[in-house]
Amino acid sequence: MLEIDCVTKRFGGLVALDEVSLNIAEREIVGIFGPNGSGKTTLMNVISGAFPATSGDVRWRGASLSGMRPDQIAARGIVKTFQNPQLFRELTVADNVRIAGHLYLKSELGLGRALTLFPGQRRRATDAELNRRVAQALELSHLDAFASDPASSLSYGGEKMLGVAMALMCKPDMLLLDEPGSGLSHDELSALSVVLRRLRDQGMTLCVIDHRVGFLGKLADRAMVLFHGSKIAEGPPQEVLREKSVIEAYLGEQADA
Ligand SMILES: Nc1ncnc2c1ncn2[C@@H]1O[C@H](COP(=O)(O)OP(=O)(O)OP(=O)(O)O)[C@@H](O)[C@H]1O
Ligand SMILES: [Mg+2]
């Protein structure tokens, strides 16, 4: 479904990604592991179109994404959640999700223009569709009980979940999650795992970065480990995380810290 083909990303003299290849299948949860600075976020940024690869290609359903803007890639179904979503803290949880949906509809369907052409009827139909989608996103992310609460009242874990709910409004086929578990309590992590598994069961494909090896090791179907921009291991998480090269890469990081 997603083919990362020999992607290299250089920042000046620094090689952040060095000929990384990875295929992600439909409905798979792939975990990206690696110590700080190993290129994980850079890989997601290349996939989502935040910046171009220096060389190599990313293909989605057989078509190259190279040269596309992030919004064009999102429109094709690949959506990156923000580590710290920009929330309207004084608005309700549901309204934050609704705004994400509005922004998406506006950019993808040219809604602003459509509304000026067909004011009454179109707006009612769109509002009903939007309300349905908001309810669905809140339910999927287990936030329905907090729908009418101000976003400012959410716990840190709740805020992260809200970021997921907002991404769901973009109708993703593939979600890219950069450290969704960071800063979460043990219970919040379990809740996040349940939500992410449910998304996959609904047909979504997930690519997840996290330092919480216990959490992601259990969640992912397959793991890839990056170290200094290179792929050093790939396979079933529990096997990969036991590989000598992987343990050394993580231990090296601790020794440096
Ligand atoms: N926009 C940028 N400009 C210059 N260098 C960058 C940029 N983004 C990342 N880098 C560098 O590329 C390397 C890989 O960074 P990246 O953020 O991808 O690592 P990471 O694996 O996500 O690390 P962490 O676990 O700390 O989030 C680092 O050396 C980083 O300093
Ligand atoms: Mg990162």
Short summary of the structure?
By secondary structure, this protein is an alpha/beta fold.
Structure description:
- The chain is of the alpha/beta class and 257 residues long.
- The chain has two domains: 25-50 and 68-77 and 172-257, Rossmann fold, CATH 3.40.50; 85-170, no CATH class.
- It is 44% helix and 23% strand.
- The chain has ten helices and ten strands.
- The strands form two sheets. A six-stranded mixed sheet has the order 6-7-8-3-9-10, with helices on both faces. It has a four-stranded antiparallel sheet with strand order 2-1-4-5, covered by helices on one side.
- Helix 7 links the parallel strand 7 (174-178) and strand 8.
- Helix 3 (93-109) packs parallel to helix 6, helix 4 runs antiparallel to helix 5 and helix 5 packs across helix 6.
- The chain is globular.
- Bound molecules: adenosine-5'-triphosphate (ATP) and magnesium ion.
- Magnesium ion binds at residues 40-41.
- Residues 11, 14, 16, 34, 36-42 line the site of adenosine-5'-triphosphate.
